[in-house]
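Transcriptional regulator, Crp/Fnr family
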Amino acid sequence: MHPSTLADFLDSEAGAALRASFHERALANGALFRQEEDADQIVLVKQGRLRVYLADPERELTLVYLNEGDVFSTHTRAHLQAVRPSLLLLAPRKIIERELGHYPALQAAVIRVLATVLNQTMTLLEDLTFHQVRGRIARYLLRCAKTQKAPIEPGSLIRLDLNVEELAALLGTTRQTASTELNAMIHAGAIARQGRKHFKLCLPERLLNWASEEPTSAI
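Tokens:
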């Protein structure tokens, strides 16, 4: 039986030799990932959550969130920040690249997370180019529903694992604007809060309309 994740593989007997190439590092909530010396690292999230983002002196743009089991390489220009208390496994990239051919589970994990980052980046570019903030939020909620296999019908619950600030950073807007638009969508009857992490679909067709609106007609 094959391990379901790279972390499971590293904890298995077959992955023991590769596990010896990794060491652990803990990051507190909000802490930035600091590169060790000048070596590119492969980062495996063992526990917690990391934000991958681009930044200039005036603003930041979140590309993706890495959750438990996800893998990332620090050779990119992106920064990493823990948004939960996190435990990481780190290994020099050149060593892991040398071992890729021997460990299919490692190849699959690296390809999966790179595909996720690329897909998120393309979605972000599309949202920023073609959709206003309300449309971006609607599109994100619909993507969450698809991932969670929640039907697009009245009464369906959509779990939102991000707080408003994290959602705003992911959608390329400010916390205030994201909060204002979410409240407007609730006031319009399209969605309703259900506890801290869930929204109930009330008028799905309204959410679908916002998600597909042209910029010139967006509210």
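The helical segments are 6-11, 16-19, 93-99, 104-130, 133-147, 164-170, 175-187, 204-212.
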